Amino acid sequence: MTSANLDRAKRYHEIIKQALLKEWDPIGVGEIPEAQDEYDSYVSGVYKLLITRRPQHEIFDYLWTLETQHMGLTGDRQATERFAERLWRLPREIEEGSSA
Predict the structure, then answer these.
(1) Do 58 and 49 contact (CB within 8 A), yes or no?
(2) pLDDT grade, residue 69 (50/70/90)?
(3) Residue pair 50/39 in contact by the 8 Å Cβ criterion
(4) CB-based contacts of 88: which residues, under 8 Å, 6+ apart?
(5) How many C-alpha atoms does 67 have within 13 Å on its Cβ side?
(6) Beta carbons of 26 and 76 less than 8 angstroms apart
């Protein structure tokens, strides 16, 4: 991986990590300092979906599975759909921001 690609991947990972923690946060740990790594294991999965330009519904499916099956929550379908849409727009936002 080139240095530019590595920097890009690191930038994506950090933005995704913060979005999961501050915007998605289905278990409500975003403000707990000791839990800032709670969703780290999901970052790579989201990253892969985004860089391969998967459709928004696949991002939703991934998040919904995490919420309802992995975490065992009832989930908030509308909130998860909104967050999936937000993530789906991230690559364009990141790429446009890096060229400015």
Answers:
(1) yes
(2) very high
(3) no
(4) 50, 55, 56, 59
(5) 22
(6) yes
User: Is-contact 87 39, C-beta < 8 A?
Assistant: no
Q: What is the pLDDT of residue 100?
A: 41
Note the pTM of the prediction, 2 decimals: 0.90
Half-sphere exposure (Cβ direction) of 91: Cα atoms closer than 13 Å: 15
Alpha helix (H) residue ranges in the chain: 3-19, 40-51, 56-65, 77-98
Q: Encode burial over 67-78: b for 16+ CB neighbours within 10 A, e otherwise.
A: beeeeeeebeee
Domain boundaries, the chain: 3-98
Q: Is the pLDDT of residue 20 over 60?
A: yes
Residue 53, SS3 per DSSP: coil
For CA atoms 88, 92, 95, 100, give the dihedral sign.
Answer: negative
pLDDT at 84 over 70: yes
